[in-house]
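Quick one:
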Amino acid sequence: MAQLQQVTVVALILFSAVMVIIGIATYKKNDTVEGYLLGGRKIGAWISAFSYGTAYFSAVIFIGYAGQIGWNVGFAAIWIGIGNALLGSLAAWLLLAKRTWSMTQRLNSKTMPEFFEARFGSAAMKIYAAVIIFIFLVPYSSAVYKGLGSLFVTIFPSADINIALAIVAALTAIYVAFGGYVATAYTNFLQGIIMIIGVIVMVVFIVLNPAVGGIASGLEKVGSLGRAAGNNNLTSLFGGANFKFLAFNIMLTSLGTWGLPQMVTKYYSIKDEKSITQGAVISTAFALLIGVGAYYIGALGRIFVAAENGLPKGGYDMVVPQILVKTLGMDGNIYTTIILAVIMLLLLSASMSTLSSIVLTSSSAISVDLIPYVYPKFKEKHKISVMRVLSVVFVGLSFLFATANITFIVNLMSFSWGVVAGCFIGPLIWGLYYKKVTKAGAWAGLVSGVAVVGVMTFIHTVSSGSFAFAMSMSPQSGVAAMAASLLAVPVVSALTKNIPAKNVDMAFDINGGHNK
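Output:
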């Protein structure tokens, strides 16, 4: 274990140095708001695709989701990874990327709240969207720390986890505050390469481990262990009795990306249409590899982790860390130790990339969307300065929420993905494709996300007598919120007054609307 700790520390130091260097080196490329937030809209296909993919997958998927769903659902959990690739990446890029890229340029929108304001002619809509982003995304980012902390504890059992997470927070704050989106994009590319190498090596070494004995043997062993524990669904192709649970998680984690601002704004920064086509293919391949690899490893958890009262010893978050340490960190072999250090960087990379995307989105919601509304004379150079400061503040808040374990914040985390996606998915997609969306229709979509999640949470809590049960039903609430948003926009639009023609002309470039 001492050798593992030494190698991991060296790897972390080298990784940290590179992140800081990238942040400082890109500092001078951010002298405008568009440069700081979008890299001047000059980001190529590979960088854009990796930035999208690394923002999609954080340590939460490897530690929390893969461990829990793999333990309970078995190998059918792989369908979530496939859904993330085909729906959350490929379909999202094909449906949203080109339209978002072109329309946001015509409307001169640098954030999703700005897009709503320009598309639907409502400053209040911009403020509402900015508030939703701030309230739900900052707490969500604290989940990133929690996932990463589980592996730190496993490798460094005597270390103070808060110190380790504080170092991660400081690194993220430095390169985001200094380099903005350019630094984030380049570090995401590097982090993406580490994630690819880490996942491939992780899967190969674990499958070849004698405890697994190959793909077929692993499948048989997990099935046998499941049946012994009273779970006959672990080798079912579609999850057996867990099919409904699986379907809701596929829909939430895949279709949710269509409405999440930290994902959608990746399209804003792409340099040209050719890069969009290439980016769709690259991001899909990346998501397929990372998603399927993570859930496959999680499904093998029962082979390595003992069960206590039907649950994994140490909790769900410790399933994947225990698999890794038992397969790669126990034999004292320097090569497997280095591999485990690389996987540690994989999880660190996944966490930092997701965190940096959320921080940029949240800081822009305040400095670009909220403050100028209250103080119209707010200059562009001041917006950049405030964004840098807020990036540091938001990273600090995320760290505080994660380590303080504040009950209210933990509850917000459980519903954040569904609320944000539920609010934005309807107005965004209909706004991109349908010229007759009205202001009232867009508002109906924006409000329905919060309303549906709130009502369903209340009903689940009252009916079960337990708020914990309502939290466990957050995937269903999130999917319902997205469906409600997509339905509310066209229905209400059909019954209400159209927005001014100039807004539509500008958005869809009708009769040279962008020149009017």
